[in-house]
Design a protein that fits this description.
The chain contains eleven helices and ten strands. By secondary structure, it is of the alpha+beta class. A seven-stranded mixed sheet has the order 1-5-6-10-9-8-7, with helices on both faces.
Length: about 350
């Protein structure tokens, strides 16, 4: 048995393999259940007692050599295949960096802009740091209106003329600037970031985003407003979406209304998202108050118009069933990557 083991050791030292199949055949030959080593270990029990130590050491050497040789041959062939592949396959992509995701607010903002651009609206922008005239006075806010209080507005600078520098509380200031610089017809949407001094919670934040729309021309009516909003709701939430308008109050529109859409999660049957009503509030709207038109130099006897405004966070919450708007501001990739599939 000693000579047989020594012979196999010499054979193993000279083993080569041209592919992984050859390596597997060698493994089966020596290390398989019916391989040579299993046979030799079975035969070992018949070795005379005085020879067991020497033969046992040789058997262990043979097993260690066989395992090492097989592993070396396997690694050598795998390394050769990788190098050959990298050299020959010039179309193989390099190591890719992990890509980020589009933010859900950006996606919904762009979708809203696209919907209104199809019917002639153009994007208008304005500064985030505004003055009292463009944010309040030109929009028919009386001096005692609650929106002027510190609990709602961030004041940047108090000026002697009372035209304080403030962080805009809505993008209606863009409408004022547009009406002052352009002659009707005017048809714009004004997306942007706004600021209000509110406690941060799952449904409120001190920073959020709005899109407001303005249409001014001769003969614009409330019916035009309703049809425009119905068109938007169907494009955003689906063809079966319905809207309803509830009377409301805004200083810069008269008459004014709150707009609800039928809950697309329960089909109007009532669920926990719509609080069992079958309706979800999405925006405010109304006919532009004549005082607002006159303040911007537009003749209210000739022209009329409507305006509407919606929170992008609110629309995004409804569209993707997000229940906590604080998630939008945390930059958590686990949250943001969920929206990669809807790009």
């Amino acid at each position: 048995m000693r000579e047989r083991i020594l012979s196999e050791i010499e054979v193993i030292k000279k083993l080569t393999a041209s592919n992984l199949n050859d390596v597997e055949e060698i493994r089966i030959k020596y290390l398989g259940k019916k391989g040579l080593l299993n046979d030799m270990f079975a035969e070992f029990k018949n070795v005379p007692k005085e020879d067991k130590k020497e033969i046992g050491l040789l058997l262990n050497d043979l097993k260690t050599l066989a395992e090492g040789t097989i592993e070396t041959l396997k690694e050598s062939l795998e390394s050769s295949d990788e190098q050959k592949g990298d050299k020959d396959d010039l179309t193989k992509p390099s190591n890719l960096f992990s890509l980020g995701s589009r933010h859900p607010l950006s996606m919904v903002r762009n979708e809203i802009i696209d919907i209104f651009s199809r019917v002639g609206y153009v994007v208008a922008e304005g500064p985030e740091i505004e003055d009292d005239w463009h944010v309040f006075s030109a929009l028919n806010f009386p001096p005692e209106h609650p929106a002027r209080d510190m609990q709602d507005t961030f004041f940047v600078e108090n000026r002697e003329d009372n035209n304080h520098a403030i962080l805009r509380t809505h993008t209606s200031s863009v409408q004022v600037r547009t009406m002052a610089s352009q002659k009707p017809p005017i048809r714009i949407i004004a997306p942007g970031r706004v600021f209000r001094n509110e406690a941060i919670s799952a449904r409120a934040h001190c920073i959020f985003h709005q899109i407001e729309g303005l249409y001014i021309d001769k003969g614009v009516s409330f019916a035009d407003l309703k049809q425009s909003l119905l068109y938007f709701a169907k494009e955003m939430f689906g063809e079966n979406t319905q809207i309803r308008l509830r009377p409301s109050y805004f200083p810069f529109t008269e008459p004014s209304a709150e707009v609800d859409v039928s809950c697309n999660l329960c089909g109007g049957e009532g669920c926990n998202i719509c609080k069992g009503t079958g309706w979800l509030e999405i925006m405010g709207c109304g006919m532009v108050d004549p005082n607002v038109l006159e303040a911007s130099g537009i003749d209210s006897k000739v022209y009329s118009g409507f305006a509407f405004g919606m929170g992008i966070e609110r629309i995004t919450m409804l569209k993707y069933n997000v229940k906590d708007l604080r998630l939008y501001f945390e930059n958590d990739m686990r949250f943001l990557k969920q929206f990669t599939s809807v790009l």
